[in-house]
Amino acid sequence: MLKKFITFLILALILFALYTWAVLTWSYSQGERAGFVQKISYRGWICKTWEGELAMINIPGTLTEKFNFTVKDEAVVKKINASLGKKVTLIYEEHVGIPSSCFGDTGYFIKDVITLD
Question: Between the CA of residue 40 and those of 1, 12, 79, 98, what are the distances in Å?
Answer without folding.
Answer: 51, 36, 11, 21
